[in-house]
Amino acid sequence: MKPVKTIAMVYRETGTCGGIQRGASFQVGQFGEWGFEPVVLSESDLGRGPGRREKLAAAIRGRGVDLVIEHDAYAEEKLSADIAATRDAGVPIIVFWHSVFSWMVANGSRNAGAIFDLLRRADAIIALTSADETFFRMIGCRSLAIPYCDADLMEGFERGGYPHRVLWMGRFVGLKRPLDAIKTVERLRETVRDAELVMLGDGAAGSRAALEKYVRSRPGLRGAVRFEGFRKDVRPYLESAGAGLVTSKFEGFSHATVEMKMASLPVVAYSMPYVETLAEGTGAFQVPQGDVDAAAARLAALFSDPAECARQGALARRSYEAIRSFDQRGAYGRLFADLEKPRSASSLTAPDASRVRLVAETLLEHAGMGLDASAERISRKLSGGGLLAALRRLSRWWR
Known about the structure:
It is a single chain. The chain has 2 domains: 6-149 and 326-353, Glycogen Phosphorylase B (Rossmann fold); 165-324, Rossmann fold. The longest helix has 31 residues, at 353-383. The N and C termini lie far apart (68 Å). Helix 4 links the parallel strand 3 (67-70) and strand 4 (93-96). The strands form 2 sheets. The chain has a 6-stranded parallel sheet with strand order 2-1-3-4-5-6, sandwiched between helices. It has a 6-stranded parallel sheet with strand order 9-8-7-10-11-12, with helices on both faces. The chain is of the alpha/beta class and 399 residues long. The chain has helices at residues 19-33, 43-46, 52-62, 76-89, 103-106, 112-121, 130-138, 178-188, 207-216, 235-240, 255-262, 292-303, 306-324, 328-338, 353-383, 386-398, and strands at 6-10, 37-41, 67-70, 93-96, 124-127, 143-145, 165-169, 196-200, 225-229, 243-246, 267-270, 284-287.
């Protein structure tokens, strides 16, 4: 393998992939600062159907690319074409896995096995947590955990207090469970009368309207929930909040959690023990998945003790500073150097034995989520009349 100078990054279209777009954009600037030459390729350059393989291989040769980093690893056809293209062009490919390792399992995705088989063919996987790193090594991949290192949005800010304002940030989609955030604050207001919720984000047409309808139907929530939509500048909302809330089914890294920690906010989150930013002693508290009562109780306990809020906020800020101090450049240098070795001689293939149990438990939990997700899809099809309508059409044709 020749020395890495020009790096091509493959990702989805701008504005369609949330954290993936954000991570890829950050990486472009990062590599540029380090003296590499980044080349950005998206679907507008490569397409997503026949011909993608040839287009990527031609771009690699034409632009003198030494290494490809794949940020769009979740569609079987595209990932297969991109791996094949790098083989055609004779350069290594690293897959940047932005999600938790069992994201596809938790979603009930039927092509999860095919994606994992393709990942084994990649030269390496960049993971976001040690649990993800361990999983990919368990299935035979060369992998290294390199967490995001978001810029400090709160530089110069000194927190003066912890108002009873809960901040939730994310997309209005099922896996983020925005309705659970509203229900949590509804319970919280039974003991903390002036508690309120600020929601930053948006979603598909009708998703916000459904949430607003729920709020209007609950007298106890009048004036207590603010829908602020998507905001690029989140600092004012971080400054004015007193605690963060994360109600996700699963996360790969959770930018929202890190931003809350930048602002010295304690964070209450649904249990995701594989996410290191939610570890005990880092200003974060995990409660059982889907348990809005437990989330409300934890927020109430924090708000009832301003000194504890301040202590946990300080831990949260230190947790962010620890992430920020991670040696990103050294980690990438180690990964690039390891690519020069055969996989059998790699130092990045042995799983961390201390995390194997956590990986196994997470896979089992997420397999259960996947079964539930598949059952919900089948139920929606039946209740929506898709199968029944087809049977009726067939019956009419037969008669």
